[in-house]
């Protein structure tokens, strides 16, 4: 088991700044929640690879997590999932072609079912890796809008949303 060395306040601040004072797992930030007048979010510095499993205090092994995510994770590396990874996972379930297309062209037109679009929108509020622009029109029914963009794999016969998903070029982590 590795010996735990303390992390200086200056180095902790460097990690917090790098992560934009935001939990890398759930996206909570004291600044965002202060504006909404919700409970205070406590941020902590977490080891991606736990010290108990050989992790160290190098910058690339440290991340910002809120108190709840850090306590829930414990020393289990399987819980190191970022908001961006959750977004990519959801995009992959909408249609795996989207990821290849956005990497190639930096943006892609998508037609997704309403539920997936709402979940994607919620996740995108927590990250600045992607930008989303809804293309206003009403699409409803089976296979409706299939020719307007990369089409959802889960056509639930209901409402669809046509939108443009773009990589945020101003974000270096995108």
Kindly describe this structure.
With 174 residues, the chain is an alpha+beta fold. It folds into two domains: 9-79, DNA Binding (I), subunit A; 83-167, no CATH class. Helix content is 32%, strand content 20%. The chain has six helices and seven strands. The protein has helices at residues 9-18, 30-35, 67-73, 83-94, 97-105, 114-124; strands spanning 43-47, 62-66, 107-113, 130-134, 139-140, 150-151, 159-167. The chain is elongated.
Sum this structure up briefly.
The protein is α+β, with helices and mostly antiparallel strands. It contains six helices and seven strands.
List the helices and strands and how they pair.
Elements (H helix, E strand, L loop, with lengths): L8 H10 L11 H6 L7 E5 L14 E5 H7 L9 H12 L2 H9 L1 E7 H11 L5 E5 L4 E2 L9 E2 L7 E9 L7
Parallel strand pairs: 3-6
Antiparallel strand pairs: 1-2, 3-7, 4-7, 5-7
């Amino acid at each position: 088991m590795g010996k735990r060395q303390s992390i200086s306040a200056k180095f902790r601040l460097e990690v917090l700044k790098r992560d934009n004072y935001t939990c890398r797992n759930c996206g909570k930030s004291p600044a965002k929640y202060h504006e909404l007048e919700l409970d205070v979010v406590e941020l902590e510095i977490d080891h991606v690879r736990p010290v108990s499993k050989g992790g160290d205090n190098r910058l690339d092994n440290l991340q910002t997590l809120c108190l709840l995510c850090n306590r829930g994770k414990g020393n289990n590396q399987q819980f190191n999932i970022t908001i961006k990874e959750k977004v990519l996972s959801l995009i992959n379930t909408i249609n795996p072609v989207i990821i290849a297309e956005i990497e190639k062209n930096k943006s892609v037109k998508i037609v997704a079912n309403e539920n997936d679009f709402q979940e994607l929108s919620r996740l995108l509020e927590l990250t600045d890796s992607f930008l989303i622009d809804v293309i206003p029109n009403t699409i409803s029914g089976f296979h409706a809008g299939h020719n307007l963009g990369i089409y959802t794999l889960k056509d639930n016969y209901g409402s669809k949303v046509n939108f443009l998903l773009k990589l945020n070029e101003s974000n270096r982590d995108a």
